[in-house]
Amino acid sequence: MNKHSDLKAARIVGGVHSDQRHDSAHKHVAGTAVYIDDMPEPAGTLHAGLGLSTVAHGILKSVDLSSVRAAPGVVDVLTYEDVPGENDISPSGMHDDPVLAEGKVQFHGQPIFCVIAETREQARRAARLAKIEYEELDPIVHIWGLDPEKDKQVTTPLTLKRGDAAAAIAASPRRVKGSMKLGGQDHFYLEGQVALAVPGEDDEILVYSSTQGPSETQHMVAHALGVPSHAVTIEVRRMGGGFGGKETQANQCAAIAAIAAKKFKRAVKIRLDRDEDMTATGKRHDFVIDYEVGFDEEGHILGVDYMFALNAGFSADLSGPVGDRALFHCDNAYFYPAVHAKSAPLYTNTVSNTAFRGFGGPQGMVGCERVIEEVAFAVGKDPLEIRKLNFYDAMGVAGERNVTPYHQKVEDCIIQRIVAELEESADYAGRRRAIAEFNAKNRFIKRGIALTPVKFGISFTKTESNQAGALVHVYSDGSVHMNHGGTEMGQGLHLKVAQVVAEEFQIDLDRVKITATTTAKVPNTSPTAASSGADLNGMAAQNAARQIRKRLTDFAADRYQIPADQVVFLPNRVRVGNQEISFNDLVKQAYIARVQLSAAGHYKTPKIHWDRAKGRGHAFYYYAYGAACSEVSVDTLTGEYVVERTDILHDVGRSLNRAIDIGQVEGGFVQGMGWLTTEELVWDEKGRLRTHAPSTYKIPLASDRPKVFNVALTDWSEAYEPTIHRSKAVGEPPLPLGISVLQALSDAVASVADHKVCPRLDAPATPERVLMAIERLRAETADK
Amino acid sequence: MSSAPIRNEIRFLLNGREVTVRDVAPDATLLDWLRLDRSMRGTKEGCAEGDCGACTVLVGKLTAGGLVYESVNACIRFLGSLDGCHVVTIEHVQPVGGDLHPVQKAMIDFHGSQCGFCTPGFVMSLYGLWMKDANPSDATIEKALQGNLCRCTGYEAIMRAARAISDYGKGASDPLAVERAAVIEKLTKLRDGARVEVGSGKARLVVPADVDDFAAVLEAEPKATIVAGSTDVGLWVTKHMRDISPVVFIGHLEGLRRISEKDGVITIGAGVTYTEAFDLLSQRIPALGELINRIGGEQVRNMGTIGGNIANGSPIGDTPPPFIALGATLTLRKGAERRTIPLEEFFIAYGKQDRQPGEFVEAVHVPVPAKDSRFAVYKISKRRDEDITAALGAFHLTLAADGTVAQIRIAYGGMAATPKRAAAVEAVLTGKPWTEVTVEAALEAYAQDFTPLTDMRASAEYRMLAARNLLRRFFAETQGGSEPIQVSRHQAA
Ligand SMILES: Cc1cc2nc3c(=O)[nH]c(=O)nc-3n(C[C@H](O)[C@H](O)[C@H](O)COP(=O)(O)OP(=O)(O)OC[C@H]3O[C@@H](n4cnc5c(N)ncnc54)[C@H](O)[C@@H]3O)c2cc1C
Ligand code: FES
Ligand code: FES
């Protein structure tokens, strides 16, 4: 027996519902956790550097690469002509995403060629020597000013409809119409895009890729190489952050490295410089949200109409489903008696925008919360009152107010209780009064507070993505090897799945080995996205473990001639009739008896379906809920602000690992806050991104987090559906908790006009936007 | 010429051993050297421009006060500048075969890492802090972490870890504490008073023996790139791939690293870093202390010099406007010749300074404001910390006995092509009673002084509005009272 395993323990160490440290934490802190750029390169490894377009839109008239080729250390230069298969990595199947530009360029920073050199430095330097002539065309840089009904879209938009919204709005006692600009967001994963391709025999290739979607990367690489998927293996042990930015965006680097590796029969590594990464890879979509809402004097919403125009960039990528998810969340936690909502994924000459934690959902919710604010200002109430008036019916209430704009019934709504508890614990009412007093006394600094809810739908809307596979081996010494299709990007997925496996076998967590994700072990996996990682892969791994456990049980029952129900897995041991044997011994005996100790597990989410053409379905298996209350101080002379305090109460069902989940909530909130405050993407009129590095693109620092930051999980909630140990997904749902900061800023701004005018504060609410909103409100009230 | 002996190699301590590098390019960064030449890959690259801290290492140097370790950004630190230093990387925090360090244990137990990519950098920054202050306040921790980005955790867990480090062990058993005497001895031995010259032709670097030697080198080679803290020049290499050879490193020159006060004037040698300047400046001119706390992050403050901030001529450098408002002067030196000019005259136009070939900035002289005068400096940026100025205003007011403005000097950064006085505004204010009416009346004059630009940091409109409002803020500040006039993170609630 393993010397650590306790054969008398009442509980295993590291089962589900226990707070475990990240499995790699001891390596993170020692610098020994290996990321792709840290792996020892195979002898003779070459390095790739990208040549990027210097115009946003143009025809490639001539591409002269002779000086590039002549530069020191350069082995060769690849262009689209060197792509042996198809020059396309479009995840949507629309053939609009070339690996390397062909004939034309559609955004500033688009990769045109790729230098292969002995060192990375040589490749980067040589890439600057190209002489490229463009016939410049006018670029479309922004979506504002575009017509969402008429201008070019990259893919089919979605319409959601329930009831007759136009009629309901027209018949409403009160109406407001408005528009909001909402900025995008760079992922700013600390580890940039990177891939290392190692050529094998025949058509084989192994690519280490920092990817959230190994199977997708495998297909794209195969596609670009013109080989079957079985020739391509993708492996990733861990990423230095992903956040959606490595769902499809990893494919380009992987494909380029693979193409070069096959061509030169040497390993090839590509690692983008931060500025290149920010310039050449997609981001969260910026939106223009037009809305009209009808409501009564009390603030009940009667009908609402939305247009969500999103900046897709030059290609479809995931913009279709991102726009869809914005619509799926345009209700946030509120029931709309009548609703009409449309998306418009607009074409522009900017980088193609992509998945980012929340996947359009947060944008839908920001639009929704603006509407709530509008109603509140119109009827002269605290926005929180309006929120509470319009919530979906609580779980168990046999009411009518429980149907979403996509016709799914909300059956598990717990937002009322969360908001009520948070209101109490954060002392919302008391602080609202204190703030009013503070604001009355202070001329320069104004405070604001907001409490905003989150309801987030869990499942991929692409039904086939809601499946997962796992592979579990039990070795003859009783140690376990665990593998599944999910990828680790810091969220603790591998740890959670290992906890599930440990629980199933009733063995200590350290008996379960976490191994790198590879397409060779588990095929046809879904990207680790949509918060689904633990839900799907946990179930698949549990399924695999259960198969083996069943075989062990049957074996023991047979060997010891007892009924199977008398074989009980206890911590690190198994009770067989009235004797106990260690798990390891049982395994050893089973091996000797030639029992198969390896299993592939699979899971598919039940219940869900979605008919996009009709805009109807059970799109989500369940919802995750949460709420945040934030208070800010704003300097009305400069627009500078600080977040004084944030209280969060968040629902993760029965947490598999509270420590990990709290980390997700804290990190998600701060990321959401950053998106809506200081993270500003600025493109100039020529379509060049001006904020392409951390010197100009400002994600939150430690000193930006709320001064007082209280995060709690709802210890009373459990998933309504039979999810993995009744836990709920936690990756994305906390991000939109950051909306509370935007709304608190808006509340502070509103105070300069005595809360009579809706500030219509757009995001990101940089100090500049805050000050300009203050000035506007002052001017408007001065006129009156 | 200098009589210093010449050495053709760089020598320093790397973790536990002494290294000698003969083949070092003038623009080789410490990070690339560690990762590529030494295959030490615990130190990460997140940005290669000094902003994210993933590459943080400690550099120990012998100073007047003994051996001091400071966090620096390996990505923009040139290898050549490390001659005679002790470089400590994440690989050295945990001694071989030893237990984890208290910083590491706390980070693990408090779940301070998620993806882990930023973590070695955080560990190094916290290590640097912990050596100086075992029980830091939140404000102190946040300041030490201004140069470290984490995209995963939201920082709260890291803060919890940082507060708890001392519960995991005391400084005495720390590897750097145990080795301290030996390191001092080794570093002392490395100081041979030589001038270092490495390379030839298009790749050459010089580490002068002393200031006179530097003056001589520069006079002989006026086109050489002077590198002090490399927080600007580092990016020329990593981002713009500019050739900077020949390079003269000056960050180590004791003769430029002195800061002292005499007759009410603080003289800051050109090689004094922000960190080194902090104590005296914050004590004598508190507003400058607060400003320094918002320049870069800790690593940048440990490397970057005030001399470099002036010499680079940037219109958004943070120290020139307050220095100009205080009436600072600048000493330039060429060979043995020196001249001293008013600081504001140094800035001629965008990209053009009053510096002759072969001349260098030797020191800046900053008068301490008189007791009865008022001085303030306000920096506005998109993000509060570790961000470049959108607009910065510095105000220095002396009132006459009758309450009128005897003298006011106002200077701004980010409002023009150079750091610039608001001469028209000053003229309107001078001689008038220091009242709200006067201030409001002066706001119009900003249009004569400034025509700011729109860029990614701010629009022209915002810059103008905020710049004017800073004068209002200054007025309010001079009126006293208990009302807060700025938002701040660490004021008493
Ligand atoms: C992440 C980051 C954040 C930053 N934040 C800020 C900020 O908030 N505010 C701000 O003002 N700056 C900021 N900077 C810029 C930079 O730190 C300062 O300008 C710094 O003071 C430059 O000093 P240095 O010693 O690093 O200069 P170097 O990079 O070594 O040199 C800068 C320039 O000055 C010249 N030079 C240096 N010393 C002399 C001398 N003695 N005589 C003549 N020429 C000389 C060099 O040749 C070069 O042209 C930041 C930089 C980074 C990387
Ligand atoms: S790599 Fe980001 S600061 Fe050095
Ligand atoms: S843990 Fe991922 S960036 Fe900090």
From TrEMBL, chain A:
<keyword id="KW-0001">2Fe-2S</keyword>
<dbReference type="InterPro" id="IPR014309">
    <property type="entry name" value="Xanthine_DH_Mopterin-bd_su"/>
</dbReference>
<dbReference type="InterPro" id="IPR037165">
    <property type="entry name" value="AldOxase/xan_DH_Mopterin-bd_sf"/>
</dbReference>
<keyword id="KW-0411">Iron-sulfur</keyword>
<dbReference type="Pfam" id="PF02738">
    <property type="entry name" value="MoCoBD_1"/>
</dbReference>
<dbReference type="InterPro" id="IPR008274">
    <property type="entry name" value="AldOxase/xan_DH_MoCoBD1"/>
</dbReference>
<keyword id="KW-0479">Metal-binding</keyword>
<keyword id="KW-0500">Molybdenum</keyword>
<dbReference type="InterPro" id="IPR016208">
    <property type="entry name" value="Ald_Oxase/xanthine_DH-like"/>
</dbReference>
<dbReference type="GO" id="GO:0051537">
    <property type="term" value="F:2 iron, 2 sulfur cluster binding"/>
</dbReference>
<dbReference type="Pfam" id="PF20256">
    <property type="entry name" value="MoCoBD_2"/>
</dbReference>
<protein>
    <submittedName>
        <fullName>Xanthine dehydrogenase molybdopterin binding subunit</fullName>
    </submittedName>
</protein>
<dbReference type="Pfam" id="PF01315">
    <property type="entry name" value="Ald_Xan_dh_C"/>
</dbReference>
<feature type="domain" description="Aldehyde oxidase/xanthine dehydrogenase a/b hammerhead">
    <location>
        <begin position="30"/>
        <end position="138"/>
    </location>
</feature>
<dbReference type="InterPro" id="IPR036856">
    <property type="entry name" value="Ald_Oxase/Xan_DH_a/b_sf"/>
</dbReference>
<dbReference type="GO" id="GO:0030151">
    <property type="term" value="F:molybdenum ion binding"/>
</dbReference>
<keyword id="KW-0560">Oxidoreductase</keyword>
<dbReference type="InterPro" id="IPR046867">
    <property type="entry name" value="AldOxase/xan_DH_MoCoBD2"/>
</dbReference>
<dbReference type="GO" id="GO:0005506">
    <property type="term" value="F:iron ion binding"/>
</dbReference>
<dbReference type="GO" id="GO:0016491">
    <property type="term" value="F:oxidoreductase activity"/>
</dbReference>
<comment type="similarity">
    <text>Belongs to the xanthine dehydrogenase family.</text>
</comment>
<dbReference type="InterPro" id="IPR000674">
    <property type="entry name" value="Ald_Oxase/Xan_DH_a/b"/>
</dbReference>
From TrEMBL, chain B:
<dbReference type="InterPro" id="IPR005107">
    <property type="entry name" value="CO_DH_flav_C"/>
</dbReference>
<dbReference type="Pfam" id="PF00941">
    <property type="entry name" value="FAD_binding_5"/>
</dbReference>
<keyword id="KW-0285">Flavoprotein</keyword>
<dbReference type="GO" id="GO:0004854">
    <property type="term" value="F:xanthine dehydrogenase activity"/>
</dbReference>
<keyword id="KW-0408">Iron</keyword>
<dbReference type="InterPro" id="IPR036318">
    <property type="entry name" value="FAD-bd_PCMH-like_sf"/>
</dbReference>
<dbReference type="InterPro" id="IPR012175">
    <property type="entry name" value="Xanth_DH_ssu_bac"/>
</dbReference>
<dbReference type="GO" id="GO:0051537">
    <property type="term" value="F:2 iron, 2 sulfur cluster binding"/>
</dbReference>
<dbReference type="InterPro" id="IPR016167">
    <property type="entry name" value="FAD-bd_PCMH_sub1"/>
</dbReference>
<keyword id="KW-0479">Metal-binding</keyword>
<dbReference type="InterPro" id="IPR036010">
    <property type="entry name" value="2Fe-2S_ferredoxin-like_sf"/>
</dbReference>
<dbReference type="InterPro" id="IPR036683">
    <property type="entry name" value="CO_DH_flav_C_dom_sf"/>
</dbReference>
<dbReference type="Pfam" id="PF00111">
    <property type="entry name" value="Fer2"/>
</dbReference>
<keyword id="KW-0560">Oxidoreductase</keyword>
<dbReference type="InterPro" id="IPR016208">
    <property type="entry name" value="Ald_Oxase/xanthine_DH-like"/>
</dbReference>
<dbReference type="InterPro" id="IPR014307">
    <property type="entry name" value="Xanthine_DH_ssu"/>
</dbReference>
<feature type="domain" description="FAD-binding PCMH-type">
    <location>
        <begin position="198"/>
        <end position="371"/>
    </location>
</feature>
<dbReference type="Pfam" id="PF01799">
    <property type="entry name" value="Fer2_2"/>
</dbReference>
<dbReference type="InterPro" id="IPR036884">
    <property type="entry name" value="2Fe-2S-bd_dom_sf"/>
</dbReference>
<dbReference type="InterPro" id="IPR006058">
    <property type="entry name" value="2Fe2S_fd_BS"/>
</dbReference>
<dbReference type="InterPro" id="IPR001041">
    <property type="entry name" value="2Fe-2S_ferredoxin-type"/>
</dbReference>
<dbReference type="Pfam" id="PF03450">
    <property type="entry name" value="CO_deh_flav_C"/>
</dbReference>
